Structure formats: structure tokens, C-alpha cells
Amino acid sequence: MATLRTRWLLSIFLVNLPNCCASTGPPAPPSNLKCFIPCNENGSEEHINCTWDQTPDPGIPTNYSLHWVPASSKEGNVTNVNGSAVIDREKYNSHSDLRVWVQAKNQNGSAKSKDITFNTGNIYKPAPPKITEIYQDQLEIHWNVTCCQGAFAKQCDVRHRAAGDQVWQETTAFPGYILDDAQPGIVYEFQVRCACGIGLSSDWCAIHRVISEKAPVGQLDLWMDCGSSPTSVDCALTWKKLPLSQACGHILRYEVKLLNKTGAWSVNLSTTEPSGQLVCDEMQCYHNSSLKDVLSASVSAHNAHGATRPSNLTIPIRGKEPKEKVIDLKMNKENLTVSWNLPSQLSDKEYVVQYKQAGSPPGQGFDWVRVEKGHTTGIFKGHFKNYTAYQVSLITVSHSGECHRISSVIEYSGQGTPSEVPLFKVDSISATSVTLFWKHVPLLKRRGLILHYEIGGDRQNKVHEVPVSPQHESQTYELQDLTPNQEYEVWIKAVTKAGPGANVTTRFNTKREESFALIIIVLIPCILALICLPVFLSVCRRESKACPLMPSCFYEKVPDPHNSRIFTQMKHQMNDSLAWICISVYEPHPNISLVEIVEIEHKALESSLETTSHPNGLSRPLVGGGSSQIDCQDDQREDAVTEECDRTDHRYGGDQYSKMVDSDEERDNEEEDSYDCLSSSEEDRLRMAGYEKHFMPSMQEILEV
Question: In the list 32, 343, 392, 685, which could disulfide-bond 53, CB 3.0-4.6 Å?
């Protein structure tokens, strides 16, 4: 318990120790008192300014006062100020002597500075000089001084040092100074102060930096900014500025030479008179013009003394983005490390590793490093933005200058949830499945590397993960096992390491399921009809009869019996409505070149068929009636009747049929000229053995039907 109390008392003592040990005496006396009259170019009143150094006690308030009196008087004036004070012009005489001091006072006492005495005509102080540069074979500077009351500068002090040094080298010079031992490409710092007549010296001017110039050395690091698309053909020529040690002075312009299939041309890009064609920042410059159709380019930097050797670049032909990932990345806000493991090729000179911030204009958000052959790591230093895509690429450069892209990868320094899919719709649909179509989230809105897409809402409470296809701007996916004639609402969202983005939904109705039972009912009779059709046709052919159940298009075509010579008399006794008789007679070698084809209906056969008796006891069918019937039974008019019977009724096209008979039939007709057309049954039988028996059914067959 005693130990805790001791520690508590000790802590209180340590807290109050500074206050207990604080100085209780008067303040320290002010020091370094100076007074001067500044030169005023505008002719304002010449007040005296006085300054001093003070070291007040921070724990005790201290007041300062400026005192001045004429050198021959003991009475003076007091001004209460802190750190500086002004003696107004009406309070002193021109070109008179003054004695001035400063007094510090606090609660414990007061202290006084040393007195200074001066003539008010000798304390004029000019403003600091302004340095101008002259670029010649050696480093030379000049300056301008503004003195008071028309006086001229009497002398000036100059000091210089190399940038980064702590020690100044000082000398006296006027009106200029030449640095004889200046090293080319080194930055030197200068300061100058001057005095006018018998007055005071000015303050040191601000530090002025000068580069010791000569012709620049080395070459520019020349490359291309093709944006975030590795297959782009529209690139901008870009290069890194030379360091001061190589620029050896101010770069006044860049000379760009371009070559295409039609020829070469040069462009001079001035740095002192900037235009839209040249854009520069602290580290890089780029030519704001497209490299489309350009085969090669070169750039050189010029100052007042010369130019660098041209840097050449062969513009590569863009190909497809390689699918293989051969580079590994480690990225955060401050660093990007790229590594790879590739076999070295004999033609390779070096590697180029580059990154491009997606969506940034040419020359911005872009950098590259060159890595010698045999090394497999490239490192970038900088500030990389979160949720922003960076296209990182590895490129090989051959000794001949040819460039080949090896691989490209998109990386993020920090990842967030992605934006929603810009387009989501139905591509095709059926009764049990649907094909969905969507476009990928734009690169600038992904906010991270998309791992996959999720699709859900198919009434099965199942979420489908769809891998990303970066080779295409859009993608499809088929949902299966859906219910026919059902309404669905499905959603899709992109997923990164930080989580899923917002949902995008679409609605659709599946189609009705097809009725296969109705199709089967219709198809079975058709199939059975096709199977039975050959059987029906074969039966009809074998019996040489028409099949009433079959359509007329399936029947064989037969000649018109109206034009047959053996039915010359019959056609006058038969009704044309007897069209149901469809006779199928096969003739392998017909004698008729062209016959008329008819179809006879079956309803009129029995009603229209009439017979007549011949005097010889034969029955003969008659067609027609009345005056149209021709009686061929008169023996006394045999020759006339024969001639009449041989002539075919023009009403049925008989003339055309008679002209189409072959020569054999004509010869038979010539032999029958002596016979009566009303022949006996034997003669009819003989005639039926000819052409008409071959094509037509016999009279008996017709009557039996």
C-alpha cells in the first residue's frame, strides 16, 4: 500500500516539476536589431523598418517596445510591437542620426537590447535582384537591380552550389557572373544580393536553378499507349522525359518521324509553344495523333546545343488476345509487382511490362518498364485506385525491334461489388426450356474481377453459377426442366470477391406442350392407307375391274370405248352418264399413238344400256335413240350401210381416232370392205381378237357387270 502511495506522489512531483523550476527572472534581451528604409518605386513615404530577434519565455507573457531618440537628445518615442516596428516619416528628420533600441518586459522584470546609431540617409535598402540566364558555351547569369533615388548598384555578392549540396561558394561580381567549371547536365543553384551607393545591401534573392547545357545525350524511352484494349490498332506514340543529367539543358522540341506504306514524314513538336499535338506531364509526353497504318516511328529530343540519337519503334501488328495466363500479379495501392516464367528465345532482346488504367485518356494512367533478358520481374511504384481495372501486359522485344504480346491480365488494387448487368432477355423458348441472353458488365463498372454470374428464379430454388467467357461481349445459358405453359421470373447478377451485385430480372411464359395423341390419331389411318394401297391396286389390276373405293387418280388410264370400231353401233345405244366403269387393260405395245382417256360413272350402266335384235338372230347394243340411230340391217342397201357404219360419229371424236390407227388396222379394214358391218357372232369374235379385244372388255363382260 505504501508503494502505491509513493508512486502517486512521485507522479504528481514530475508533473509539477517544470512549473517549480521555471525561470522567475526577467526576459532575455532582444538581439540582432536592424533598421532600414526600403526602396519604394511608387514614391510612397519613406518609413523606417526595424527588426530584431526575440526569445520569449513560453510560460510567461512578454511585451516588446521599440525606442528611438535623436543622437543629440535624451527624449524619444516608444512603439509597443512584437518582432518588428515602423518609425513613421514625420517622426524623424531626413539625413539625421538616430539612436534605436528594443526593450522586453514581463512580470519578473525587463531587459534591453544594444543600441544602434545610424544616419537616416544611409539606410536605404534595395529590393533583391532578378536573375536572367544566358545559354552559351559556358554557364553565365545576369541580374537586374532597382536602387533608390536614382542611385546605381555599387557591388553585388553571388553565391552558388550544385543542387543537393549544403555549402555555398560565395564571390563578388557585377553585372554578371560566369561559372567556368560547370559540369554538363548538372543543376546549379544561384543567389545574388546588391548594395546601392553608400546604402545597405539587399536581401538574397530567391534561389535560381540553372542547368549546365550541352547537347543532350542518350535516347528517349519510346513506347505506345494503346488504351486498355490489347487488340487495339489505334495507339498513341508516347515517351518518357529525359532526366536532367541527360537533357543537359532545356528540351526545346521533339522531332517525330513516321513511316507508312505511302512514305515518311516529320513533325516538330515545340515545348515552348505547346499545341494540341504534344501533351506532357512531369514524367511523360505523347504525340496526340493516331498511329493507324503507321509501320514505324522514331523520336529525338532537341535543346539549344543539339539532339539525342533517334529512338526507333516498330509498330506491331495486333493479333488476338492470348488465352493463356503466363503472368502473376501482386497489386495494392502503392505497388504493382509482375512476374512470369517463360523460356528465353535467342531473338529476344528484352521484356516490356506495361499497365493501363481502364478508361483513362492517352498518356494518363499508363506506364511501362523495360526488363533485361534473363530477368522475370517488373515492379511499379505509384498510387493505384481502388475498384479500378488495370490492364497489365507482358511484351517481348526482339533485337530487330519487333514486338510480340505474350499475355494480358486485368487486375484491381481493391475490389468492390459490381454494377448490374446492362442487358438480360430471353433468346429462345420452348415448352420445357429457355435460352437466356445477357451482356457482360462494362469494364469501367465492374469494380472488381467478375468470378461468375448467378441465375435463379426457376421455381426450383436453385441458383445456377455460370462461368465468365471474357472472349465475348455477351453470353447465353439454357434453363431446362421447366413446366409447360407456365410464367417465370428469373434474375441474374455478377459476383466478385467482394460479393454479388444488383439483380436484373426478366419474365417469360413457356409454350404449351404439343398434343401427341391427336397426331397419332391422324397418322395411323394414313399409315394404314399407305400400307393397304398396293394390295387394293394389285387386286384391281388382276381382275381388270375398277375399284370403287379407290380414287380415280389411282386407276390405270384406258382408251375411250366410244372411239372403238367394234363399239361403233354400241355407242349410239349407251348413255354417257355410265362413267363408273373404270376398265384397266394393259397393252404392252399399243398400236394407237394417242388415245382419249375417260372415266365412266357406274350409276348409269344398267339404265342406259339398250339392245336390239338383228334379223340374223344377233343382239346388238345401241347408243342414243331417235334419228341418231343408224339401222344397218337392210341387206339391199348393204354397200351404203357399210359405208355409213365405217364412218365414226363426229360427236365423240371418231374422226380423230380413225386417223390415229396403225397401218395393220388399215390393211384389215381394206380386206373387210366387202363385208357387212352387221357381221355374225363369229365375225364379232374375230374382230375382238384384234386391237379392241386387247384394249376393251367384250360385250359379254359388259353385260355381266
Answer: 32
